[in-house]
Write a structure and sequence with these properties.
Elements (H helix, E strand, L loop, with lengths): L1 H13 L2 H19 L12 H12 L8 H18 L6 H15 L2 H20 L4 H85 L4 H25 L24 H10 L4 E6 L7 H21 L6 E8 L2 E8 L18 H12 L3 E6 L5 E8 L5
Parallel strand pairs: 1-2
Antiparallel strand pairs: 2-3, 3-5, 4-5
Helix pairs in contact: 2-3, 3-4, 4-5, 4-6, 5-6, 5-7, 6-7, 7-8, 7-11, 10-11
């Protein structure tokens, strides 16, 4: 039901002439009923021309949004002519209120003030024209009602402008957030590319060493040379698999690696040292390794290390005092998973705006890193309180 009403409201918002035409039809019907009813205040019955003028004035409300100021001037002229002649004005008073409201709601401040001035001037002219005491009283009492209609219309216009500004600001923030996220992803992809470049370079170096050894012992130790060639074949396949994984994300502007990036990249074997480092920083951590650990593909090994590193860093920064963390590394046939949990309740000194910091760019990069190897990542609250980061990587050929 709510969806239907929302759709109808949107449809009418795109076609303002439809509700305005319905409003004009109601005014015309009310004017006809008023014209054939007994006349109040001893007013003279209108002639054909006056009746047609009243009905046309009510029907003109259909264009109240397109030409509101013109409509108001025409209605005031007709109304003033009928009042001075002592005729019944029927529903023209209501039509004038609608016109004043429409000018205030759909035009700028200068035009709306001019419309209010026109209406009040028409009241003064009507009062000064020598009409009866009862008619003069009606005109004077109607002036505050007109001012109220103008205030309501002006308030609605300001509210619409305020909501439009809020919507525009939200859209700008959304675009800025998307641009920020894309920049973070591009930066992390560049970082991944540099790291995997070192991994592939390591494989090529190993193949070169093995090939040189095989060449030296080819005539004296054919069996040893065959083993060296088998090792070259295996390393070559691993390197090709890594290169297939990174095709499409190697988009660095500078292919040169810095001095600190030429060394071997960390992996899951370095997790105990990482955990000990975090303990020294004041975060109690327990590390469990389940299953038989085998040789992981270097890219997945590096991704798992970076995942644990980023998750523990976020725990240290955001979990709050007294928080504990658990790291579980599980080796299973055809799958490798990493799980980092904490029981934190948030920082003791929240941000000035009262909001807790959410996942940063590091975890955005982690999503890219896990997706690169076809893995699945879950980041969110932990059952029982705290936070959890869990990643699962599929392994081919049982490794």
């Amino acid at each position: 039901m709510r969806t239907t009403l929302g759709g109808l409201r949107a449809w009418l918002g795109d076609r303002p002439l439809v509700p305005d035409a319905l409003l004009a039809a109601l005014l015309v019907a009310a004017a006809l009923a008023r014209l054939i009813s007994p006349l109040p205040y001893g007013a003279r019955p209108p002639g054909l021309a006056e009746a047609v003028a009243v009905l046309l004035g009510c029907a003109a409300v259909a264009v109240r949004r397109k030409w509101p100021f013109t409509l108001l001037c025409a209605l005031e002229t007709t109304h003033l002519s009928l009042v001075v002649a002592g005729h019944e004005t029927s529903m023209l008073d209501t039509a004038i209120l609608i016109a004043v409201y429409s000018v205030a709601a759909h035009r700028g401040l200068a035009v709306s003030l001019a419309a209010l001035g026109v209406d009040l001037l028409a009241v003064l002219v009507g009062v000064a024209s020598g009409v009866g005491a009862e008619t003069r009283t009606v005109l004077l009492v109607g002036a505050p009602v007109v001012v109220t209609a103008w205030v309501v219309g002006r308030s609605l216009r300001m509210r619409r402008a305020y909501l439009a500004e809020l919507k525009d600001r939200a859209e700008r923030l959304e675009r800025a957030r998307d641009a920020d996220t894309r920049a973070a992803r591009a930066e992390e992809r560049s970082r991944i590319a540099r790291e995997l470049h070192d991994v592939v370079a390591h494989h090529v170096s190993v193949m070169t060493v093995q090939a040189a050894a095989a060449r030296r012992i080819l005539t004296t130790n054919p069996q040893g040379a065959g083993e060296a060639l088998s090792a070259i074949e295996e390393v070559g396949r691993t390197a090709m698999a890594e290169m297939r994984n990174i095709v499409g994300v190697l988009r660095t502007d500078d292919g040169r690696a810095g001095p600190a990036e030429r060394g071997p990249q960390p992996g899951t074997l370095e997790l105990p040292a990482l955990v000990e480092q975090m303990r020294e920083a004041g975060l109690p951590i327990q590390l469990w390794t389940e299953g038989e650990s085998g040789d992981l593909p270097p890219g997945i090994d590096l991704a798992a290390y970076r995942l644990v590193q980023e998750a523990l860093t976020n725990t240290l920064r955001h979990a709050g005092p007294g928080a504990r963390a658990w790291v579980t590394v599980r080796h299973e046939p055809g799958e490798f998973s990493v799980r980092i949990e904490d029981d934190g309740r948030g920082p003791a000194d929240p941000r000035p705006d009262g909001e807790r910091p959410g996942p940063g760019h590091g975890l955005v990069g982690i999503r890219e890193r896990v997706a690169l190897y076809g893995g699945m990542l879950r980041i969110g609250p932990r059952a029982g309180g705290g936070f959890e980061v869990r990643a699962r990587f599929p392994l081919k050929d049982g490794r």
